[in-house]
Design brief:
The chain is an alpha/beta fold. The chain is 51% helix and 16% strand. The protein is built from 20 helices and 13 strands. The strands form three sheets. A nine-stranded mixed sheet has the order 7-6-8-9-5-10-11-12-13, with helices on both faces. A two-stranded antiparallel sheet has the order 1-2. The radius of gyration is 26 Å and the shape is elongated. The N terminus is likely disordered. Bound molecules: adenosine-5'-diphosphate and magnesium ion (MG). The site of magnesium ion has 5 residues, from α13.
Length: 422
């Protein structure tokens, strides 16, 4: 297939003059080379499809198109300004022939369509964005340009334009408090299984935020996390979100047995419940960060409404040892938390639960057990923070430590074989 450099320079000729293409073995019009190549690729594939009458022809097309992309990618590295020009050219051409866009992006996903329609987004840019996980206007608008640049490899001018256009389409900017109120009135919530605990949260755990449960060992953090994975799958009218869960386990304490018990406690088919929990074991902090980045791509596809990170900073604490590493550790945790927070901006229907240990340094925090590990970074990163402690027997006490709109109350709940209850 022809490389982008050939396409862009168009060889020798001026506008309107033919350019002989070695691959197609025919003349192309300058300015239409790219489009004509696509048509050629499609024609070739159709021919093959008839011959083979199998699915493999689709792959053939994909690989041909892939090569075009690769060619474009090389070109983009050479000169960033050219990308915009090239992309604009692509867009014009694809617009005039809507069929040709279908050749490349089979995904009818509306979000991707919206990204594709951003000014200056050609197929090459689109592919890079999707590959890096930026497949919706929200994901572009809410992510810092530096991060988009690092992950997608696009130039900063292009990214600045994309962010500006996404923000304007999403109408991100000032709105009236009344609009915010209207939105918040309809916010969805997940029941915890305990009426008291739900009341502490103002009627269940709300979506669109990061909730942190922190406390000592055996205070119920992991149990609550398990229970929410079951409850999120309930229908809306029963306190669920009709959605699935993604569980990132950093401590090796996820137990499907508990999911089975909790499902049975609610008379649910445990096989179905287990199937709808996507599980990822994070073996170190880098792996944990990566899993969250990958999660962004799964949320829409797998109808994820709940993400659990149990626990948030365990790995960071054990990997970054010594005073010299503190600044780097806090910075990395901060970035990780912001990755999580951003997910709730991008997917307002999503609820994120993180668990956290309490600091076990009595010399530093003596007399104040309600100090979570991770310091201010974690405290500022989570929207709602709840401290858990043990009560009598199976009872546990949850204390609202920090929430933008909730009083600092307490709730008593219990952990039984059937899960969280009153
Ligand atoms: P952590 O806060 O350390 O994550 P967990 O959420 O794992 O603690 O809570 C562990 C506690 O949950 C146990 O001490 C026990 O009281 C309770 N628990 C765990 N499994 C069961 C069960 N099958 N039946 C009743 N209680 C259980
Ligand atoms: Mg635990």
């Amino acid at each position: 297939m022809a490389k982008a450099s050939e396409m862009n320079n168009g060889g020798q000729s001026g506008n309107g003059e033919p350019y002989f293409c070695k691959e197609c073995k025919r003349n192309h019009t300058k300015g239409k080379i790219y489009k004509e190549h696509l048509k050629f690729a499609r024609f070739e594939t159709d021919k093959k499809e008839i011959e083979e009458e199998s699915e493999s022809s689709e792959k053939g097309l994909e690989s041909e198109v892939e090569e075009i992309f690769e060619g474009l990618d090389e070109e983009e590295k050479e000169d960033e300004d050219d990308i915009i020009e090239l992309n604009e050219m692509e867009e014009e051409e694809l617009d005039s022939d809507p069929d040709s866009s279908k050749v490349i992006i089979n995904d009818a996903n509306m979000c991707v369509e919206a990204v594709k329609r951003l000014p200056g987004v050609g197929e090459a840019t689109l592919k890079k964005l999707i590959k890096a996980g930026f497949s919706s206007l929200e994901s572009i608008a809410y992510t810092p340009p530096k991060i988009i640049q690092n992950e997608s490899g696009l130039g900063d001018k292009t990214i600045a334009k994309l962010i500006k256009a996404s923000m304007s389409q999403l109408k991100i900017g000032f709105k009236s408090a009344e609009d915010v109120w209207e939105y918040r009135k309809n916010i969805s919530r997940i029941t915890t299984g305990s009426q008291e605990l739900d009341d502490l949260f103002g009627g269940g755990i709300e979506t669109g935020c990061v909730v942190e449960f922190f406390g000592e060992f055996r205070t119920g953090k992991t149990q609550i996390a398990h229970q929410l994975c079951v409850n999120v799958q309930l229908p809306m009218e029963d306190g669920g979100l009709d959605g699935n869960a993604l569980y990132i386990d950093t401590e090796g304490t996820f137990r499907p047995e508990r999911i089975v018990q909790m499902s049975e406690g609610l008379d649910l088919d445990h096989k179905k419940i287990l199937k709808n929990i996507i599980f990822g074991r994070a073996y170190n902090s880098d792996h944990q960060i990566l899993l969250i980045k990958e999660a962004a791509n799964l949320i829409k596809e797998k109808n994820i409404k709940l993400i659990i990170v149990d626990s948030l900073i365990g790995h960071f604490r054990s990997e970054y040892v010594g005073r010299g590493t503190l600044a780097t550790r806090q910075q990395t945790i901060n970035t990780h938390l912001h990755d999580l927070l951003r997910l709730t901006d991008i997917f307002p229907e999503l609820c994120i639960i993180v668990t956290n240990q309490v600091q076990s340094k009595p010399d530093v925090f003596y007399g104040n057990p309600t100090v979570a590990a991770g310091g201010n970074i974690v405290a500022h990163g989570s929207t709602i923070r709840v401290y858990l402690r043990k009560g009598k027997g199976e009872q546990r006490v949850a204390k609202m430590i920090d929430a933008p709109h909730l009083p600092e109350g307490e709730a008593v709940f219990s952990i039984t074989e059937n899960g969280i209850g009153d």
